[in-house]
Write a structure and sequence with these properties.
This protein is an alpha+beta fold. It has 4 domains: 1-93, no CATH class; 98-244, no CATH class; 271-485, no CATH class; 506-638, no CATH class. Helix content is 37%, strand content 31%. The chain contains 14 helices and 25 strands. The chain has a 16-stranded antiparallel beta sheet that branches. A hairpin with a 4-residue loop joins strand 21 and strand 22. Helix 1 (3-34) runs antiparallel to helix 3 (61-90), helix 4 crosses helix 5 and helix 4 (96-133) runs antiparallel to helix 9 (207-257). It starts with a helix and ends with a strand. Mean pLDDT is 76; it is low at 242-301.
């Protein structure tokens, strides 16, 4: 079914569900005349009320209470229709096994909800009321209103019904293999914190009600772990049985049709996982390594920068030209080739160890490692490269001494290493002891320095105790100290830098100043600017809200929306600014609109409209000479 047809079907399913709820609410209104539901809901608190009556403080409260109860009864009456509409919309996308699980899960879920709600109504809610009202004194008279009581009792009862669904949800997730009992046990402390938050939200704002819901919720979590253990064991037995059947049915035929694979030779692991690389320093070197002739990657370190930093521009060794036999072997499909060369090669079969000594050079899947000595021990999964090791991986280079890599857990440690990352067209260099996972997707550094200055002795740098770098996503460092040369300037508890590219919604990083050198007044001391949020609504429109605060001077709020519609040859922006002078009674409101649209090759429309109510605030406070000397003007043109 096409996507638009799915939307049309969803629209009609929602309309039928809403119609069923409306009809059910009307039926519930008439049922209230025959069944006193409100009296039934009031029963837990009736012994504590003077005369057994609740109080209302507004003429509309009894009517609104009746409407709410009728709506709740309407939802209950219409629930079979709503459930059927949901099932009719989702069932075509489910497998037969999943369809068979839905009905039992639905029945069990309804039963658990009713058990939890009834238990709360019969025991937990009266117990909470008994404890809370037990502090009543003889000189205090309770005045409990309809709105306050039902606002407390209904969420409490419904919340207890919802939390009893926890074992069912965990069992379903465990049966599908999403969670395991071991995972639930390890996350118990987080579950306790989440349970406390849910209990605080679903119960009235008092500690007694929260504890009355928190304790059953924790017990249900422990019960859920036991249910997940049972579901996981059954799932494991089914998987094991299916595996045995597949082996019995398929082993003979597969073995007859496929030649036995060649025994794997002892080899070092992919060298690219030894550490987080620094960008390649030469397009010629990269073409030599990978055969790429497209030129340097954007933002890579050039040769001059590499030489200043002491980085190599390419490996110093190459492999001999393969003959016809070796070339045919290298082209065989289904094999991963590892080539290595050294002055001395020692293979110890009993310990499964390979020693490459003196000008060792290893290549695997485009990744090359060069060092004085390389040692690989297969039993312990350890690879060690010492003696000025260098790693070349396509468009990257890494230096550090020594390099240690564990091929089993696929993590490596590089001592005294140098690496970099790109952020907004700027290259940041990190020096320190690095711990790297597979593929260099995560880098952890200890006692590290990082800077954007490519000089061997940078003009400034940040020194951090711990640094975490996630590939093309974020960089976090804590704590950090800003140094100018070797002079500490500022201490920061942490630094967070988003290094993802492209447009996306998020918080703007503010700029702040303390005791600026250039001040509009003598009393000015600090400011915050560009504090706000950016919304990337879609590919054509984005919206930005921000604010500025200058101590003792003025506060300014900004809003801007930009649009760009390429196939209509239209783009523009709409801006709004409101500034308030703090030391004087004056405000300024600015509105700007810029629009450009081309209708055909000879016709276009351009608009530039600017309006300010009081531009003197900008002239008195702005430090931008272009803003101070500019004048507001508007123009419209249609050609």
């Amino acid at each position: 079914m096409p996507f638009l047809d799915h939307l049309e079907e969803l629209r009609w399913r929602i309309l039928w569900s809403l119609l069923a709820i409306v009809i059910g609410s009307v039926v519930g209104w008439f049922l209230l005349d025959r069944i006193d539901v409100i009296e039934w809901l009031k029963r837990p608190i009736a012994p504590y009320l003077p005369g057994g009556r609740l109080i209302f403080t507004s003429p509309a409260e009894p009517f609104m209470l009746t409407v709410k109860v009728a709506f709740a009864l309407g939802c209950l009456v219409a629930s079979p229709v709503v459930i059927y509409q949901i099932w009719a919309f989702l069932s075509p996308a489910l497998y037969e096994r999943e369809k068979r699980l839905v009905v039992p899960a639905l029945v069990v879920g309804v039963f658990l909800f009713l058990v939890g709600a009834i238990a709360c109504y019969q025991w937990l809610l009266p117990a909470a009321l008994r404890v809370l009202l037990g502090f009543q004194r003889y000189d205090l008279n309770p005045m409990i209103t309809i709105d306050r009581y039902f606002g407390m009792a209904v969420p409490f009862v419904v919340g207890c019904g919802l939390i009893t669904e926890l074992p069912l949800m965990i069992t379903i997730l465990a049966a599908l293999g999403v969670v395991t009992p071991e995972f639930l046990g390890r996350q118990r402390r987080y579950a306790i914190a989440i349970a406390a938050g849910l209990a605080a939200i679903l119960t009235p704002p008092d500690a007694v009600s929260m504890l009355l819901m928190l304790i059953p919720l924790l017990l249900l979590y422990e019960l859920s772990i036991w249910c997940a253990w049972i579901a996981s064991r059954r799932r494991a037995r089914r998987v094991a049985a299916a595996t045995i059947v597949l082996l019995l049915l398929g082993t003979g035929a597969l073995a007859a049709q496929n030649p036995p694979p060649a025994p794997p030779a002892p080899r070092p692991p992919p060298a690219s996982r030894v550490g987080r690389p620094v960008q390649d320093t030469s397009a010629a070197a990269r073409r030599q390594l990978t055969g790429d002739s497209t030129g340097a990657r954007n933002g890579s370190v050039d040769t001059a920068t590499a030489r200043r930093l002491g980085l190599p521009t390419g490996p110093s060794r190459t492999f001999p030209t393969p003959d016809h036999v070796i070339d045919s072997l290298l082209k065989l499909p289904g094999y991963r080739i590892t080539r290595y060369v050294a002055e001395t090669l020692v293979v110890q079969g009993d310990s499964q160890t390979i020693f490459l000594r003196r000008q060792a050079f290893v290549e695997r899947e485009g990744t090359q490692v060069e060092a004085d000595s390389i040692r690989y021990h297969q039993a312990s999964c350890r690879l060690n490269a010492v003696g000025d090791p260098k790693l070349f991986d396509k468009s990257t280079v890494l230096v550090g001494d020594p390099m240690d890599y564990d091929t089993c857990v696929r993590r490596g440690i590089v001592h005294d290493a140098l690496t970099d990352f790109q952020q907004g067209g700027v290259t940041w260099y990190v020096r320190g002891n690095l711990s790297v996972d597979s593929g260099s997707t995560r880098v952890y550094a200890g006692s590290a320095n990082f800077t954007s200055d490519p000089q061997p002795v940078p003009d400034y740098h940040f020194a951090a105790g711990q640094v975490k770098w996630i590939n093309k996503r974020t960089m976090i460092a804590r704590p950090a100290v800003l140094y100018v040369r070797d002079v500490p300037i500022m201490w920061l508890p942490f630094i967070f830098q988003d290094i993802r590219g492209g447009r996306r919604s998020g918080i703007l990083f503010p700029r702040f100043g303390l005791n600026d050198l250039v001040r509009p007044t003598r009393h000015y001391s600090r400011h915050f600017s560009d504090l706000g949020y950016y919304f990337a609504l879609n590919d054509y429109v984005d919206v930005l809200f921000s604010g500025d605060w200058y101590a003792g001077r003025y506060v300014s709020m900004h809003g801007q929306a930009q649009y760009r519609w390429l196939d209509r040859f239209m783009q523009g922006s709409l801006g709004y600014t409101h500034s308030t002078q703090l030391d004087q009674q004056s405000t300024n409101t600015g509105i700007s609109w810029s629009h450009s649209q081309r209708f055909d090759s000879r016709t276009d429309f351009n608009a530039n409209v600017t309006y300010y109510t009081n531009a003197s605030i900008i002239r008195r406070n702005s430090l931008n000479p272009y803003q101070v000397t500019s004048s507001a003007s508007s123009s419209l043109s249609f050609n």
